[in-house]
Each structure stands twice: as C-alpha cells, then as structure tokens.
Write a structure and sequence with these properties.
The complex is a heterodimer of chains A (145) and B (81). Chain A has 145 residues and is of the alpha/beta class. Chain A is 47% helix and 13% strand. Chain A has 8 helices and 5 strands. Chain A has a 5-stranded parallel beta sheet. In chain A, helix 1 (7-14) crosses helix 2 (21-31) and helix 3 (40-50) crosses helix 5 (63-74). Chain A is globular. Chain B is mostly helical and 81 residues long. Helices cover 43% and strands 10% of the residues of chain B. Chain B contains 3 helices and 2 strands; from the N terminus they run H-H-E-E-H. In chain B, a hairpin with a 2-residue loop joins strand 1 and strand 2 (58-61). The radius of gyration of chain B is 16 Å and the shape is elongated. Classes of the chains: A alpha/beta (145), B mainly alpha (81). At the A-B interface, helix 1, helix 3, helix 4 and helix 5 of A face helix 2, strand 1, strand 2 and helix 3 of B.
C-alpha cells in the first residue's frame, strides 16, 4: 500500500513554519520507501502556498524556486509519483460532501483511491468518513515516525 | 505582540462577518483575520526569499523570524481564495 499526501500534509513537510512540520517531515522521510505520491492538484497547491504572502510572509518564493522545491522533493532515492485522475467525480465520494471546502478533499480521496493509495491527512473528518482509505498523520514519536 | 486596535464600525462588522463565514471565531479568530489582511496588503515584494534546503528527496523551506507560523486552517483558507 502506497501513500498519497494531501495538500496540508505535503506542505507541512516542506515548510518549517507549519505547526505540523516536524510530524510531517519525519513521517514522510520514514515512509517514502513504502511508496508515495501526490496528486497533481497537491503539486499546484504547494506552489501556490510557497508563493503566497499570507503563508510565507516576506519570504515568498518565486515561481521558479517554488517549482524547483516541489520537483526536488519528488526526486531522491524514493521518488514520489504524480497522480492524475481522469474520471469525473463519483457520487460515492462527492455525494457525502456537506460544504464547499470538502470538494478538494473529496477529489484527493477519489484520486488516491483510484491509484490504490492511502490518503495521508491531518483532517479528522476525512479520516472518519473514509477510515479504510485514509491515514491520520501520526504525531512524531508515535507509530512509524 | 498583544495590542489594542480601535477599528471603525464597518471594519469591525466586516471582520465579524468574515469570521462567521469561515466557521466562527474558533476557526477564524479576529486576530488571524487581521494578520491575514495585513500580510496580503503590506507584504509587497519579498526583500529576502526564504532560504530553501534543496536536497533531492528532502526539501525544507526555512522559516526566519519574519515569516509566519501557519496552521492547517491557514492552509485551507489560503487555498480557498
């Protein structure tokens, strides 16, 4: 079983100023050998966040560096895959959404499931909704961190 | 920093509305909304982009004191804009 990281967990692994950076970084480093991926949407979300002054303040990166940061993370001994889902949103997942902010989460869940990946998230609601297809990011020092 | 701001009524009303729209004060406190707005408007061009440790398979964007700490809620809000 390989893992797909959601937008928040992937960004937390990259940015030292995310409150979950230590947990996400340690978990990702430890679990890359199992197989890991991000959806294309997560790739783009990471670039957006790295270039957003409300997130990085005056430390924002330009497009070239933001893309390089994501690409470099995907390299290495255990490279990450990019998942692309070409199906339409399915009712089994999307009909459970109760608010607009859940739509991207639903899409990431559909994408991860379609490729046989477990979605790693910090969102307890996602984990409650799809416990068999998601993993709540463990706190560092617990489980496989 | 703790401080006291005197806000015009319309600004205070906008802050309350925005907080309610984002799920209430637990999810979007007035402090976090003011911080967000100030960063959005006054950050300007970066004077010093963040330092980035680029090691194949392990990237860390370093945070200096001028850069915000962010929570998952901030990430969601930023991607929601």
């Amino acid at each position: 079983m390989a893992y797909a990281l959601d937008n928040d967990v992937f960004f937390a692994a990259l940015y030292e100023g995310h409150v979950a950076h230590i947990d996400a970084r340690a978990w990702l480093d430890a679990n890359k050998p199992v197989g890991w991926a991000i959806a294309m949407e997560t790739y783009l979300a990471a670039m957006r966040l790295l270039m957003n002054p409300t997130i990085l303040g005056r430390g924002i990166l330009d497009g070239a560096m933001a893309r390089r940061a994501v690409e470099t993370e995907l390299m290495g001994k255990y490279p990450g895959r990019i998942l692309i889902e070409d199906k339409r949103p399915i009712g089994e997942i999307f009909d459970r959404a109760t608010g607009h902010r859940q739509i991207m989460d639903c899409w990431l869940m559909q994408t991860a499931r379609a490729h046989g990946h477990t979605l790693v998230t910090r969102d307890k609601a996602i984990n409650r909704a799809w416990p068999e297809h998601s993993l709540l990011l463990p706190r560092c020092g617990l489980l496989s961190c | 920093m703790k401080t006291t701001l005197e806000l015009p009524d319309d600004v205070a009303a906008l802050l309350r509305q925005e907080s309610a729209a984002r799920g209430g004060r637990r999810r979007a406190s007035l402090s976090s909304l003011v911080s967000y707005a100030v960063r959005e408007v006054y950050s300007g061009l970066p004077d010093a982009p963040a330092q980035v440790d680029l090691k194949a398979g392990r990237v860390v964007v370093k945070r200096d004191k001028q850069m915000p700490m962010v929570r998952s809620e901030d990430v969601v809000a930023a991607l929601d804009d």
